[in-house]
Amino acid sequence: MDLLEAYRMLPADLWAAFPLVLTAVVGLGLVVWDAFWNDAPPIPWVAAGTLALALLWELGGLSRAPETAFYGLIRVGGMASFVNAIILASGLLTIALSVPYLKRIRHLHGEVYALILFATVGMIVLASANSLISVFVGLETMSICLYIMTGLVREDVGAGEAALKYFLLGAFSTGFFLYGIALLYGATGTMYLPQMAAHLAEGAHPIMFWAGVALLLIGFLFKVGAVPFHMWTPDVYQGAPTTLTGYMAAASKAAAFAALVLVLDAALPAERWQLLLALVALVTMVAGNVLALVQQNVKRMLAYSSIAHAGYILTGLAAGTPEGYAGALFYLLVYALMNIGAFGVMAFLEWDGKEGYEQTVDSLAGIGYRRPLLGVAMAFFMFSLTGFPPLAGFIAKYAVFAPAVKAGLTWLVIVGVLASVLSAYYYLRVVYVFWMKSPDEAPEPVRRQTFPVPLAPQAVLVVCVVLIVLLGVLPGLLEVTASFFPIPAAPPAAATALLP
Amino acid sequence: MNLPYLTSLVIFLPLVGALLMLPMRRVSAIRWTALATTTVTFLISLLLYVGYDPAGSPAQPQFVDRIAGWFPGLDIQYYVGIDGLGLLLILLTTLLGPIVVLSSWNYIDRHQKGYYTLLLVLQTGMTGVFAAYDLILFYIFFELTLIPMYFIIGIWGGEDRIYAAVKFVLYTLVGSLLMLVGILYLGFAAGDAVNGGVFTTDYFKLLAYNVPLAAQGWLFFVFALAFAIKVPLFPLHTWLPDAHVQAPTGGSVILAGVLLKMGTYGLVRFCLPFFPNAATDYALWLAVLAVVGIIYGALVSRVQADAKKLVAYSSVSHLGFVVLGIFAFTVEAMQGAIIQMINHGLSTGALFLLVGMLYERRHTRLMEEFGGIARVMPVFAFFLVFTALASAGLPGLNGFVGEFMILLGSFKSALVGHPLLIALATSGVILAAVYLLWLLYRTLFGPIQKEVNRTLPDLNAREVLLLVPLAVFMLWIGVAPGPFLKRTEPTARFLLETVEQKRLAALEQAEQLATPAALRRMGSEGETVQTANP
User: Fold this and answer.
1) I want to staple A336 with a disulfide (CB 3.0 to 4.6 A). Which of A250, A483, B257, B312 is the partner?
2) Side-chain half-sphere of A68: how many Cα atoms within 13 Å?
3) Nearest chain A residue to B188, by CA
4) Mean pLDDT, range A398-427, rounded to an integer
5) Which of A425, A432, A474 sits opposite B154 (nearest CB)?
6) What are the sequence ranges of the domains in chain A?
7) Interchain contact, A401 vs B139, CB within 8 Å
8) ipTM of the complex in this document
9) What is the distance between the alpha carbons of residues B475 and B472, in angstroms, rounded to a whole number?
10) Chain B residues with CB-CB distance to A431 below 8 A
């Protein structure tokens, strides 16, 4: 295809990738606006409106047949729409939680919302990548925004440390990732994911190929926080502003896992890496849950729990079947709801950024009776994270464990469920501290004057709880995620262009 | 008679009541709503009893409600129904509902809305367990009972309530999550064999599938473990005394009356017919554990100073009888086990209520604090003596019927009918009399030693009202168990016949598999070995 023809297709592509384009353009607009009117109050709401519009578009796109846009670089519709919807919804819910929270910790900067939009753009590119180039561009766009958000509360030592640690380790993992891409390209001669498997079958250089795969996997496992590449997670989760932690946990995990699914499903034959992924999943589930047991700070506990959940999702991926991938996608949605909710609750139980960093769970004894909405919502999130039916967390666990059993990984699932028993201990601990202890038992009495929860965050928590119950009782959405697989193997004809 | 949605109504009416309660603020309104909901549920469940046709085929549950396609693309359904086994347990559950609400009337003095809401949600979960004919649905109801009980123990319980609540949940979770793995495995295997490759947890489809011998061992283990923890079978019982002692009276009644039955019910409903070969192979071992539990529970009961602990350990002993009856594989013993589940629910439930009434009056449960109170509380003394005798198995009251049938059936059993074992089990009946009469002696009789006990008020109308139905049923089952046995007999017979058929089928299947392989090993190269079976 020559360039002239390519330019002619551009308007159609821009339209096909409307949410991506919209979010990016508004994000740039917000930066300019913020430059002329510093921290303008409408900025968050413009950002929220943008995400809501994009979300509606993607929800409509769920039923559209998947295609590619921008010369086969990204996918639109189908699975891409689903994951993008998770990402956009996470962003939207996070903004509604963040406005009052960031105001309270005196960091209500307009840039934050521009950063959320840019991170969302990066995540969308990552989650809908059809080529290793888009994977890399998306990953970097997302990561750089997240580094900045982590260090938002500059004057706080913990935040600074977390941001630096995240940045250094992240940059390091990016190096692995890039090197992996280079080797893969060298071995197969293509950047397009769907063609990679075919090129491999035609006799690519096997050592170079598998070395590339290994390096690429390291990059992915770092981003999703799997053991042994999880070291950054607790510090970052603890140091970042609480509502933004929820966003990072939910959306970045969704995007990175979606890209991993695309790479595994489209590019790599399953039988070779199944055992490797299964072992990583095993170590991740066990280590995440064991380390979470001893945490005193809820944010840090949730960080280790996020590692454990990465392990559960990896169990679904290790199955290597369409059902396993579909289950993982469903899990990502449920995980996003639970985590945004849980971090949202924690955000409204602290009164400055430092507090979120240091607050122990015991200091919240009996808080459920003083803040019933937060207490009840937190109980729902904790039970769902444990995987109790009839909440969505159970269906999600079912959705990743069942395919693994079917694929003959029963031993892995047994370890997984035993690890979830451990997790029950620390999730229930939050519940009993909130509801079963009396406030007098707190080491330092909780401040009488707690902040009220404005309407928007209340609505967010209620939405999360309702969706968790609904998805748990009516798991029909599993059918939607299952319909994305197998991913159409060859890119549509128009896409083979420009790039090798 | 087959009214549509009757089963679902009985299951979900308490949940509706719980939702109605949420906007209420006044405590009395909340309590009355809870009482009305549970009473209406009980009355509706009587329709199930009346409408249940004992002559109907036991292979076909009655009052079936099903919604297919609940899980997309998988054969997991909302499928509930009633058979002889489920019927009695559901009636027990719905009967205990209003009784527990009444018993908590004044005992629960804070956060009443939360308490009654959880109580009603709990009832939905328990009823669902006994009505579910889909394994995933069963699992969901099974787990649904954990959360409310966790809060009931943890918020309204005694001094060490948090420890007890967490222990209760963790113990049960270990078993039930491992069982979930078993369910998934079984669902896929059965789906491949009898359901055209579609994952299924339909009870009757799973029943039609003969689990290969190689898989039966570990599947039986994970299922039996989950249920044995719930029962609880010795040595998995250690959560029980903690949970019972710490729970508020209402919680203890439900725990002893219904929650423990979910374990024995699961053994009967799922473990035996799904894994018949493993179940018969390990029957003797489980029977031995049951007998150890019978004697151990009784001996530990005897040395308790706390009346509630005494009753708690007596559960370990009584449930041992039920497990023994289940693994005897005779119709008498199976029926005895089913009746004994009901009996234990009635009499131990009543004992917990009575101990709770003492606690409300004196805020202690130590038996040494009482003595001689039969004189000041004659009505209380009557009910305590009556219940204790029923629990100890006095002929004419319900405990005798169950224990006698279990022992008789076990003695006839080819699998566990070792005379020594049954003799030891029988000694449990004597030991039960020892610890229960000890309880009576220490609390009711002798001289009044503490001055405060002279002025204890006797039972009020509310307390009598909630004990009378239990006493009536204890007497009824003891004198005329016919109507109940008539309903359980076809089910017990059907289950045991299924076990036997499936056991032989699995053996035959294993033989068929073994034969061609053996032939192939013997056959020379290049020869195709024809299997004998077309």
Assistant:
1) A250
2) 23
3) A406
4) 90
5) A432
6) 3-487
7) no
8) 0.88
9) 5
10) 150
